[in-house]
Design brief:
Blueprint (H helix, E strand, L loop, with lengths): L1 E9 L4 H11 L4 E8 L5 E9 L2 H12 L4 E6 L5 E12 L5 H10 L3 E5 L3 E8 L1 H11 L4 E6 L3 E4 L11 H10 L5
Antiparallel strand pairs: 1-3, 1-4, 2-3, 5-7, 5-8, 5-9, 6-7
Amino acid sequence: MRHILSALVQNVPGVLSHISGMLASRGYNIDSLAVGETEDPRLSRMTFVVMGDDAVLEQVRKQLEKIVTVVRVDDISSQDYVERDLMLIKVKAPPGKRSEIRELTDIFRGRIVDVSHDSVIIEISGPEKKIESFIELMRPFGIIELARTGRIALVRGSRRLLNGNSDQNLAEVSQSVSPPS
């Protein structure tokens, strides 16, 4: 089963290395990972996609929660959430095929962000299945290069209580985090 974990972590050097090393040393594979600053510059959000049953998920959560720089870990795949990937894809685009490539890009609500004499770079964002479908449609044209972000996700709706932490408690925790140097 596919699980999406969202971890709020202190925005300090070495956190990503520590967490990814801990997961790797215990044999957990990270299918996707995205990290970025949150609305509070002292905190970053790490979004992991891991495969495994509920026992694997629980072990990953417990291991993450033991790390001092981890403020909170949530399994958001069990909630109503919105997820997105971002992809840049460079495809061969001879003049006779450009209109077809442009039409497919428009259908997928993508944008052509660069054009050269023999290729185009397209930006697409959306759920994983949309990205993968677009990749398959571009294969016949000839994919030159492809880059994807890791999955990012947020739970729908207003702020919520998770793991016994209210928003007020989370604010107190984030105030105790020293600013990044």
